[in-house]
Amino acid sequence: MPALIFDCDGVLADTEQHGHLPAFNQTFTDFNVPVQWTSEEYAQKVKIGGGKERMRSILTEELAASLGLTNDAAVDQAIRDWHKRKTDIYKGLVESGAMPGRPGIGRIVAEAHDAGWTLAVASTSAEPAVRAVLGHAVGPELAAHFSVFAGDIVPHKKPAPDIYLVALGDLGLQPDDAVVIEDSRNGMLAALAAGLRTVVTVSGYTKEEDFSGASLVVSSLGDPDNGEPTAVLQNPLGLDVPDAVSLAVLQDILDRPAPSAPSTTASTPTEKS
Fold first, then answer.
1. Beta strand pairing status for 216-218 and 232-234?
2. 192: phi then psi, degrees, rounded to nearest 5
3. Phi, psi of 159 (to 5 degrees)
4. DSSP type of residue 261
5. Residues 147, 166: Cα–Cα separation, whole Å
């Protein structure tokens, strides 16, 4: 059977502005780090891959010295401590229900599960955070049917294809067997570089990005029963998407030739928190 592979942040839930950003800022406060990112500043930080890498980006020589981080080992340990605290804060926000699943996530997951599709998440965010978001977005019963590929399990983060190649290998799938749901250009590039067909559901920080190469770009997967139909933003294949991205739409995408990956798939580490 085919597989449906989701990114996490911005796809399962719109986590960046209401989850990761306040968790980063609270962590900086807890460790007496004199940094507080605004929403506008964080819009640039999301282009840096991984929460540890985003934290490391603030450490100028002057700031590191003022915090007593006088060598690489001290910096590395501080980043590990900060990120562990940030993950705990973020999980608390998720468990509070502050970030419900994006429109259509629960619907498409239930539809795919009932049809026997393989379900997976591929994200280089911290695994505990990914599992927390997944459980709240689709419910614990459906979450139990997912394979989760997350954390620092690959050497290069998106837009490198590593995380998707690991997922394909572990699941015993060929690229023609799976469709990916992403929300960012870097995520899309990673999926395309792995030979995967990709649907993009834009999120708050990514809606202005270039999604050339995606099979379909939409505002969300769509939840018309709750008054949240999808808006089709780019439809290069001419797919029939009346008010939601259905399993039939995803199967139609799988039946089409795979798109060529853009030439800009450098393995610069960028991804989610």
1. antiparallel
2. -65, -40
3. -85, 5
4. P
5. 12
**Tokens 């340990």, residue?**
77
Catalytic residues: 7, 9
Dihedral sign of CA atoms 174, 177, 183, 185 in order? positive
- At what angle are helices 105-114 and 247-255 packed, to 10 degrees? 70
Is 178:219 a contact under the CB 8 Å cutoff? no
pLDDT in tens, the chain (273 residues): 899 999 999 999 988 888 999 999 999 999 999 999 999 999 889 888 788 999 999 999 999 999 999 999 999 999 999 999 999 998 899 888 778 889 999 999 999 999 999 999 999 888 988 998 999 899 999 999 999 999 789 988 889 999 999 999 999 999 999 999 999 999 999 999 999 999 999 988 888 899 999 999 999 999 999 999 999 999 999 999 999 999 999 999 999 988 776 765 444 444 455
Residue type, 63: L
Cα–Cα distance for residue pair 213/262, rounded to 1 Å: 7
Residue 205 has which token pair?
């920080």
Region of residue 244 (phi > 0: left; psi between -120 and 50: alpha; otherwise: beta): beta
155/162 Cα distance (integer angstroms) = 7
Listed residue (96, 82, 78) closest to 15, CA to CA: 96
Q: Residue holding tokens 């994006």? A: 102
Q: What is the rounded CA–CA span in Å between residue 146 and residue 230?
A: 24
Are 196 and 167 contacting, i.e. CB atoms less than 8 angstroms apart? no
Helical axes 185-193 vs 162-171, angle rounded to 10°: 50
Report the distance separating Cα 191 and Cα 261, nearest Å. 9
